[in-house]
Amino acid sequence: MDALARAGSLSTPLRDGDMLAAIDLGSNSFHMVVAAYTLGQLRIVDRLREPVRMAVGLDARGGLDRAVRDRALACLARFGQRIRDIPPQRVRALATNTVRLMAAPQSFLVPAETALGHGIEVISGREEARLIYLGVAHAQPPKPGSLRLVIDIGGGSTECIIGRGFQTIERESLQVGCIATTRRFFGDGRLSPKKWREAVIEVGAEFQQFANAYRALGWSEAIGASGTNKEIGGICAAMGLTKGAVTAAALPRVRDRLLEAGRIDAIDLPGLSAERRSTIAGGVLVLEAAFDALGLERMAVSKAAMREGVLYDMLGRGSGHDPREASILALTQRYGIDEGQAARVEGTAMRLFEQAAPAWKLDPDDLLMLAWGARLHELGLAIAHSQYQVHGAYVIEHSDIAGFSRQEQQFLAALVRTHRRKIPKSAFDALPDRLLPSARRTAALLRIAALLHRSRDSEEIPRLDLLVDGPRMVLGLDRRWLHNRPLLRADLEGEPPQIAALGVQLEIATT
């Protein structure tokens, strides 16, 4: 059984009747969608939404207002009650722009995870864009072979995506959401045509960074996702301008009607909910800038958004079509990684994992991280041989890798950073406390696997026994095999003081 098959044998595939939950900690609202896996399909059984308005509570220094923080934690506690019987591996909670901008995100995430009862992952803007597109594509299947533009205006950011089928081609995320833009340009509550024109030019400059490339690629239809676009579409319908879409002709009339109010608190648009009155100006402004920059004439509105995309991403992960696999393959090809050496290290790492997992309580997610860490451990060689583990870790942590959350990338980066040489004390600082035990122990397994294959010898290791008991790790090897490899023997003799930095006490036994 090869390493990939071994990884699959330890995974937990979806079974008929399994429940899944996706939680979206957005900058405006928190959403939760609960679905049942039935006959290979997802059936939505519950939806919850609360207007937490996290972005309103974020100050210029990245601090979160206590009242907003308490509101967010109370919401997550209620969500947690609803999903307390769903296994952790069937729940994904994702935090977006507001948490990305926090100066000390762990000060919010730790109590937030306690309130929810599940881990919370922070994702990049481009990963958010991928998941938004996935949700829209499943809700409104695209025409075969045609390109589609999806625009999602959130509370703190706006995502623009071009895709074909269920795959994204271009993804961009801008710091111009409905809350952020309203606060930025109309913080005093006053509206005026002059201020609006200046703001549209400024926001439009953000879209101009990629507008030419998008327009050159083209699309056959444009779709708006999430609450702000749905609200604007509803206003257009209520004003008798469209049947629910947003058009280049209707949008200026919505804007002019909005500006007639003169003040945010006096806005009275047909079809506008009281909840969105305080932020609709920023949403309309961002959409007008997008229409101008991208040359849009019409945008339909989707009921789906990121949370639905998260559910379908989980469906892929649970049915053997994990999108992260494609990303790992792309990285190995882009950086010219020696696939033979990576496979040798991965295979040995999997053998060690199988023996250590029960005692160390490592799970299938740890197995995947170990396998991917093995495939990428030499990525930094494409940059320089000296300190290549440092270069590789930096690339993994700071790249936009489709399918991965920030914590997953930080986990992988820590494995790559610590697989050789001295282990820095700061190697795991970016990880939340809940991931530290498995990250350190998984790193120890990768470190041993990489060391055993330092010579790049393709000969299989005849004996590879591993006994773990708490921090103690006893590695059993064939005495004659090891005797014929003096360099490896010297490396193993010098390894216990090094690996101790991972909280592991290594012993070598030969027979």
UniProtKB/TrEMBL annotation:
It comes from the Bacteria. The keyword Hydrolase applies. The keyword Hydrolase applies. This is Ppx/GppA family phosphatase. One of its GO terms (molecular function) is exopolyphosphatase activity. InterPro entries: ATPase_NBD, GppA/Ppx_hydrolase, Ppx_GppA_C, Ppx_GppA_N, PyroPPase_GppA_Ppx. Pfam families: Ppx-GppA, Ppx-GppA_III. One of its GO terms (biological process) is polyphosphate catabolic process. Residues 324-495 form the Ppx/GppA phosphatase C-terminal domain. SUPFAM superfamilies: Actin-like ATPase domain, HD-domain/PDEase-like. Keywords: Hydrolase. Residues 33-316 form the Ppx/GppA phosphatase N-terminal domain.
